[in-house]
Amino acid sequence: MAKIWTRQAVLRALDDAMSDDPTVILMGEDVAEAGGPFKVTEGLLAKHGPERVIDTPISEMAFMGAAVGAAVCGLKPVVEIMFIEFLGVALDQLTTQAATMRYLSRGRLTTPLVVRASAGAGQGFGCQHSQMLDHWLRGTPGLKLAVTSNARTTYGLLRSAIEDPDPVVVLEPRILYSEREDHEFDPAYRTPLGKAEIARPGKDATLVTCGAMVRVANEAAANSDASIEVIDLLTLWPWDRGAVLESVARTGRLVTLEEATASAGWGADVVSTVAAEAFGGLKAPPHRITLPDAPIPYSGVLEARYLPNPAYVSEQIAALVSTNKAPAPWWRNAA
Amino acid sequence: MTISNSNSPLARREALKNRLDQLQRMVEIRAVENRIQKLFAEGHVRGSTHLANGQEAVSVGVARSIDPDDIVTCTYRGHGHALALGVTPAGVIGEICGRTIGCAGGVGGSMHLVEPSVGLLPTAAIIGAGLPIACGAAMAARARRNGRVAVAIFGDGTANIGAFHESLNFAAIQKLPVIFVCENNLYGEYSRINLTTPVEDIALRASSYNMPGIIVDGQDVDTVAEAMAEPVARARRGEGPSLVEMKTYRFSGHSRSDPATYRPAGELDAWLKRDPITVFADKLVAEKMLSRDGLEKMQAETNEAIERVVAEVLDSPAPALGDLFAHVNGQSPGGDQRYSFWRN
What we know:
The complex is a heterodimer of chains A (335) and B (344). Chain A has 335 residues and is an alpha/beta fold. Chain A starts with a strand and ends in a 12-residue tail after the last helix. Chain A is built from 10 helices and 14 strands. A 7-stranded mixed beta sheet of chain A has the order 3-2-4-5-7-6-12, sandwiched between helices. A 5-stranded mixed beta sheet of chain A has the order 9-11-10-13-14, with helices on both faces. A two-stranded antiparallel ribbon of chain A has the order 1-8. Chain B is α/β, with parallel strands linked by helices and 344 residues long. Chain B has a single domain, classed as Rossmann fold (3-Layer(aba) Sandwich). In chain B, 41% of the residues lie in helices and 9% in strands. Chain B contains 12 helices and 7 strands. Chain B has helices at 9-15, 19-41, 56-65, 79-85, 89-96, 130-144, 162-174, 193-196, 221-236, 267-272, 276-286, 294-314; strands at residues 71-73, 150-155, 178-184, 187-188, 191-192, 213-217, 242-247. Chain B has a 5-stranded parallel beta sheet with strand order 1-2-3-7-6, with helices on both faces. In chain B, strands 4-5 form a two-stranded antiparallel sheet. At the A-B interface, α3 and α4 of A face α6 and α7 of B.
């Protein structure tokens, strides 16, 4: 089996989708002539032409909105937002216009639009180029939000998102672009939206996570005395309640591992659902492992502490499983 | 001439080829706006509405200058544009009263009128939102090589938001078949243009984006339609976008609760002398297409027709609880019944 870079999976997914469907177009800053700032669109201009692979001005409001209009009128635009923070200046078009088009037209208009964005911390990009910002989008009716976790799910989620009839945001943890894994491309492979995967089975605790934290969770589970079941949510909105409840029913313990701040992180919704629907089956309080409520620091020393690492995750889960009490986060004693 | 609630939106649009129908549509728009104000007082309308009395010539002039297959985006001050493009009075009044008979089934309200069969995308409640979307519709038209154009209709207040500048730049650099139509009615919400905008003529801004900027008397429906002809033709020829500024005036305040006391004395009276309905009616009388008392008759008949529509609307049901969950996404009740623009 071949070793595949995650960035190759993005390129392959876009290339295959454009080959399969002539209405798929690609728009974004530097995606055509330059081959993309992260080299995930290299060669697409030469293969699919300038009418379908379109360099835009640094003008997110314009090209996000243009993608909405093009989607309504019969194209399937894939928009690249270079860093998810750049969505801030175009948010209206996505959450207010695209997400309500079907509803306001009573199903007569649809917006088959995909927004891809690099996201996440760990590479020293500082506080304005390292966030996930999923909390800007979760909870918006009419919108879907997925997070890739490796080359396989990157290919599968992007293909599913491009085939979906509604607007879908796909967050691509930037730190994974240069990760490799064994994977054989299959043009028919899809990762369905709205479905979680069990990344690693276990019986003592359910560790729910997504994105770049999946590999942290897997490594923590591999080095843990407890038997930990790792669930990769893959779609953060709407998320797979059934898969989480089923797993927790078997393990009796819920832990979320989030690249999200403690306040308003996605795990709060997961914990709330499990507490309400599976309370009687819990052996321990649900526990969230998150980022602290602080901006992402530039310093390598601080950023390494800021992000959960496998050793910290193992410790937290070991404490929960051995005492059935939720341990304090590291920053409780650090400030 | 058709006082045409029974007609389909497309038939109503086709009727605008007739000059008398153009006048009748302007009269209808005014009658609907006035009746909406009354419906508010009677407690049938929730939230807010934004009337455009005085701007009827722009609505009808633009609608008559483009085809039903062309795409239009528009702001929340859109009742007149919706009616001009073909939405029925029952579709507009029904929507504003939150009934299923409304053009968005009663879930949209005054600010969200929509009718795909005549190219009208949902009108947006966010200033500037329609301009980038029109650019995208134009991109799709070009990609499909169907010769269609997109028109973005917005007010002078929009000329100061980023989406305006980004869209003009994007459309120009991409040479998109889009026409930006600015209704300069001198007021952005409650503020006169001189308080918010350092130029009197929005059309000047076209020069920064290397596109034609055209200033038009927006009170004369013929002038509006004639001014639109070349920008539309230019767009269809693939030569890129234009900015067309319609000089017009909002006879009422920003929204239903605004008495517009901030207007300088005499300004309204001066503009009322150029009421687009009397301007056009006088022309039609001179052309011997309308009798001297023809306008009054038309207004009386239209008011009666609108009263019948209001009765029909008030007698029609509100959406059912299930409509709340329908059409949220493709998995929702109602399914994925996509209306496809430009099938041919």
